[in-house]
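Is this the right way to post structure tokens for a design question? Let me know if I should format differently. Anyway, here goes:
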């Protein structure tokens, strides 16, 4: 029962972090390459970044927490 709960938590985190990484990378591509090219082709690197960021979300969250902690000192 506990294993199922942990798996559901991880999968939920994968989707949330993946979508956030995808959108952030796509917006960055649009701002860097220009709106039209970024909109047409920016989804390719955004998809790759979203997949990687989604599956590595526990490490990303740990790094974000450390950065916030260090920024407040």
């Amino acid at each position: 029962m506990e294993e199922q709960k942990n798996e559901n938590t991880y999968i939920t985190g994968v989707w949330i972090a993946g979508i956030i990484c995808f959108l952030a990378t796509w917006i960055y591509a649009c701002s860097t390459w220009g709106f039209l090219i970024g909109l047409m082709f920016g989804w390719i690197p955004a998809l790759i970044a979203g997949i990687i960021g989604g599956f590595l979300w526990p490490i990303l969250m740990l790094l974000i927490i450390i950065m916030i902690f260090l920024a407040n000192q």
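Format looks fine. Someone answered above. Worth noting: The mean pLDDT is 91. Residues 2-71 form one domain.
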